Amino acid sequence: MNINFQDEIPIDFDNNSRVWVYQSNRAFSINESLEIERVLEGFTKEWNSHGSLVKGFANLFFGRFIVFMADETNIKVGGCSTDTSVRLVKNIEQDYNVSLFERQSLAFIVKDRINVLPLSLVNYSIENEDITPDTLYFNNTILTKKDLLNNWIIPVKESWLAARIPSSPTP
Question: Do 40 and 92 fall into the same domain?
Answer without folding.
Answer: yes
